[in-house]
TrEMBL record:
Record keywords: Metal-binding, Zinc, Zinc-finger
Species, as recorded: Perilla frutescens var. hirtella
Keyword Zinc: yes
Record flagged with keyword Zinc-finger: yes
SMART domains: RING
Family matches, as InterPro entries: RCHY1_zinc-ribbon, Znf-RING_euk, Znf_CHY, Znf_CHY_sf, Znf_CTCHY, Znf_CTCHY_sf, Znf_RING, Znf_RING/FYVE/PHD
UniProt protein name: CHY-type/CTCHY-type/RING-type Zinc finger protein
Occurrences of domain CHY-type (ranges): 23-99
GO molecular function, one term: zinc ion binding
Gene Ontology BP, a term: ubiquitin-dependent protein catabolic process
Amino acid sequence: MDCAFERQIISQLPAIEECIIKKGSQKYGCSHYQRKCKIVAPCCGQIFDCRHCHNDAKNSIEVDPHDRHDIPRHEIKRVICSLCDTEQDVQQKCINCGVCLGKYYCSICKFFDDDVSKNQYHCQKCGICRTGGKENFFHCDRCECCYSNILKDSHICIERAMHHNCPICFEYLFDTPRDTTVLPCGHTIHLDCVKEMERHFQYSCPVCSKSYCDMSRVWEKLDQEVASTPMPQIYQNKMVWILCNDCGETSEVNYHILAHKCINCNSYNTRQTRGGHTSCSSGISELVR
């Protein structure tokens, strides 16, 4: 090659690289991730934008239950460049056009994402990539998942706390892309599911029934309601046994049609264990409206 021509090519490399970057800066990907590649599913050989797109498609109600499955993310071996359609082994840069397939790239999870504002990091103990910045999280060995540093000395450990489905929407929590929260009782749930519960005036954990927020003002209103609603003479001396969902204590209290108050912690989040059937849920719903 002529030396002058070679020098000319070398001098143009920055401009060529900038052109490639600009070309690749267009928005590619799906609703889950911004990336410039598609994955070839090792389980069924089909092409998808990401593992969530695969799992949504392969687990839909239209698919035969015997054929439903999740993609084994760590077994992904082939990707297709979204710019030049070149199929290739998993790597960060396209072997044909040179575009970066994802600014964040994990060779273990076979994961690409151009939106690095999520501060992605790979947790070796979880075995998957997390978001939020490694410096802001710690891995709890008993819960077997990553939690915010805020919870390091205060959270209640529950073995394999996130290795189950959300108790509201039933989506698997451990690798969900949605925000999760840890309730004071230690159980985990999607943050938007908690907000949906609150819109329906539900303020107790769907797993253990413990109140997850300060209910003292509601209990005070129930005190007033119970006091202003005397029971008929035939029920005034009736006693029932109750179990408190908040403190776990059992006690014998006067029967009332509205609700039963725990004599140990003053909570109305109780249930009858012996006696007639009644519930305070409808009463609480009215009081918090």
